[in-house]
Structures
1.
Amino acid sequence: MKLTAIGTSGSFPGPNSAASCYLIETDEESPTRIVLDLGSGALSPLQAVIDTDALDAVVLSHLHPDHCMDMTGLYVKRCFDPRFFNGDITDTGTIRTRTPVYAPAGAQERLTRAYYTDPGKSPVANGGDDSDLSHAFEFFDIDHGDSHQIGSLRVESFLVDHPVEAYALRITDAQGHVITYSGDSDECENLVEAARGADLFLCEAAFQEDRDTARGIHLTGRRAGRVAQTAEAAALVLTHIPSWTDCSIVRGEAAGEYRGPIELAKPGASWTL
């Protein structure tokens, strides 16, 4: 199982990275390929590493724009590619197999609202599409304790502490290797359980100790390290660090709590289990 960081910037696209997006692929004769989150700006670098038509699924940890908004661009790519589009978006016979999207309840409505634009005074309004994302995607709700089999990968979801419904994701391959992705979360018991014994813990660390005092939103490096240590994760990769935060400070905070190897996620970096 291989993890590739596509977008690692926290909360919005930074000067050197798109927002959250991570590709997981298996090394098999018929590989499984899934994307965890598709945040603002992430569709562009994602296309540089994979043909998005080859994706088996997209899994969204939550519905903040920096984790899901480029789904609208993927919808356009899936529907209007001239190889398949014949001028009638409602003719589903011209569309390829729909991509499964696993996400918190309400994702289809949320993303449809994001994509739809009222035609207003357009003189050709009747020629517009109906903004029905189900032409391209098949949506499945995730909930706490759910387990979904996607190809050879099992994806489990754990409700975590964030101002909106958000899930940590635990991905297990056929050999039993585990990658846990925190999504956005503060320190909480469910996050520890999601990361329990993980071979790699991809964990957000958007906040900095003594500067960001709000709770229930994001982790600091210190809290991320503490979760990793408590969960006995084999390796910690810190991500979702916004441009106004010094990565070395966050890494140092984590090192004060976690005794295993620590890396900082950067676009294009990959890890193979």
2.
Amino acid sequence: MLLENMSYVEVEAYLIEKDTILIPVGSTEQHSPYGLLGTDFITAEAVAREAGRRLDILVAPTINYGMAQHHMGFKGTVTLSPLTMTAFIKDITDSFLYHGFKRIIFINGHGGNIEPIKNAFLQLKYENKKGIFEVISWFLLPEVQEIEKDIFEDKNGLHATPSEVSITKLLRKEAFKTKPTEKKEVVRNKSYSPLSRDEFKKLYPDGRMESAPWLAKEKYGKLIMEEAVRAVMNRVREIMKIKLL
């Protein structure tokens, strides 16, 4: 059920029966020396595709870039501005609306994307566009946070977490052969938000935010991803039951 593998004729046939599409969205940004730059889109894509497969729902191509300006102090990070991100999400959503999709759900893997995505939805509603627009951030779902706490206690943190690194270890095992594994201090700093790229790097010099990514393991990734898929599926089922106005 991948849009990229379908013809327009097949999409027409799908829309006769269903009106829902999942869109994975992430970011290309630093995840400390321990994690992959692609972590956020790799995890979002995996969760969305597995949820779509089980629910028999169409999954759009993954959006690999997001609003990551606060990580720009680290090489390899790519960012869209908040305004560009909002316009980008709006245009994508508008395109699917035009073709007849009515429940457009972004499966998100990056915190910095949330507000721009919601702003895109607000703009669409300002333009009186009809439909249900949702963003589900898999890492913020209570079921996922509960299993993370069970496994990592208070060391999961907020960024470059052992949870997301565990999932990428499961999915991209070969990429971790060159990554460090030594333990470091977990520092918890009080600060404000949002942060500029310079403020962020000053507060989090190696890119970690209160996290211990060296605790990541493939076996944890399997457990966390399964919980994330189940939790996302539950949210999607709820959205599919909502009556369209």
3.
Amino acid sequence: MTADALKVSGITKSYGHVQALRGVNLSVRPGEVHALLGDNGAGKSTLMKVIAGAVVPDEGTIEVNGTTQSFKVPKDAQDAGIETVYQDLALAPSLTPGENLFLGRELLKPGFRGRLGMVDRKAMNRRAETELSQLGAKIQRYDSEVEMMSGGQKQAVAVARASLWGTSLIMMDEPTAALGVAQTAFVLELIERVRDERGLPVLLISHNLPDVFRVADRVTVLRLGRDVLTASIDDVTTNDLIAAMTGVADVDPNRSHA
């Protein structure tokens, strides 16, 4: 069998007397969109930071494509092929799409000028145009600053950067928050393109159940720091997910396996 793209087992994390994660288990399969749901305080943000290398867990293991990893800093996760699209996108607003895609990994001019450290902005913008076009983004000028772009275009730049460098997993934190209807539809199409055309698994952290039912293949629900349900999206209803998130009814986490 093919190894999971990501497998976390028994992850715990406490901050003083507060237990943010209490033995969480999560697996993301190759080429799937896996939604991570939970109410405020469920542990989603802490788990995301653990997977991104920004938080070191107290206990538990992380495997990427079958290899056990130990993330101490975000670069460790990036070296393992995990890229994160944060809710604030973490873009440099005064830079072009190409400069954002290669931020910290700039392309240098060929020959002597490259040895002097001269950056090849035209090459980066050309690559950005290729990457964003493949994702279906329509950007008129690739030499314009990102701050001049719409919310959907900015999200496309962030997703293109993640899919350019992420070889194992893309994590997306509330990617449609504060977007309008048309921009939300575009971002959901981006997620599907990343999965279907690039073959990259996506871990989607979201509160938006319609978005989850639109693009997710499987879903995991966290409640009070524990995973309480993992199922194929085809095997659950909105009421099932709300019940699992709120704890208003007992949900058997083994009821649905996919």
